[in-house]
Inverse folding.
């Protein structure tokens, strides 16, 4: 299984909406990294990630998210992650990243 | 098993180890833990392999009430004592993999020789009250 990334800038709310579908691992993490870097360069605004179809994430994926968050923090913006599946949530919890990212739902 | 040292094969190992853990009788949550831990070890093996290393190795030890997995590479090797636990709020991109493995598995051991490679052995026990 691979990773599908759907991104859209919500002009009304001034936020990025990103839906992740599939798996973020060593194979797909670069694709996510490039997408997030492009987004932050284009418009450094809050990023809302819909993780309801994210089946799997590993440390390489977390590394990419941390890298993007660091860039956003320079602009006082955040990454919000919504509707994580139980297994994905567990990875955020054990690494303590549930306290770094805004996890919702 | 001998696996090509390429990112696209980590997903194959995840499926393989899930199937083996399922056959032993682990529950879904434990299978997920094993899957993540093994994938992290494989990711490490690929990232720390020599550029010309074509393969790494995954071995399974099926016990009566346990599953042991060995992931071995012929990479540059890491000094295990150099791997620090991630600090909350420090926001480091790397170093999370080994921490995740230790969190999810019941026993984890590393052996590592600089320039010879790294071997990670991890064990998950089947608990009776399932």
């Amino acid at each position: 299984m691979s990773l599908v990334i759907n991104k859209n800038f919500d002009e009304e709310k001034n936020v990025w909406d990103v839906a992740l579908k599939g798996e973020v691992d060593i194979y797909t993490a670069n694709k996510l990294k490039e997408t997030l870097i492009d987004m932050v360069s284009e418009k450094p605004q809050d990023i809302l990630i819909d993780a309801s179809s994210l089946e799997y994430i590993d440390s390489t994926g977390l590394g990419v998210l941390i890298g993007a968050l660091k860039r956003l923090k320079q602009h006082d913006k955040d990454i919000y992650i919504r509707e994580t599946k139980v297994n994905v949530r567990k990875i955020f919890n054990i690494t303590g990243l549930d306290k770094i990212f805004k996890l919702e739902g | 098993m001998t696996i090509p040292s390429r990112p696209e094969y980590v997903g194959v190992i995840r499926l393989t180890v899930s199937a083996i853990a399922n056959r032993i009788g682990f529950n879904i949550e434990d299978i997920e833990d094993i899957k993540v831990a093994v994938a992290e070890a494989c990711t490490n093996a690929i990232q720390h392999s020599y550029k010309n290393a074509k393969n790494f190795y995954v071995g399974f030890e099926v016990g009566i009430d346990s599953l042991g997995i060995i992931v071995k590479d012929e990479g540059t090797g890491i000094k295990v004592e150099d791997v620090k636990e991630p600090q909350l709020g420090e926001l480091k991109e790397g170093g999370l993999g080994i921490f995740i493995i230790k969190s999810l598995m019941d026993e984890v051991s590393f052996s590592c020789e600089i320039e010879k490679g790294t071997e990670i052995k991890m064990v998950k026990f089947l608990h009776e009250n399932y």
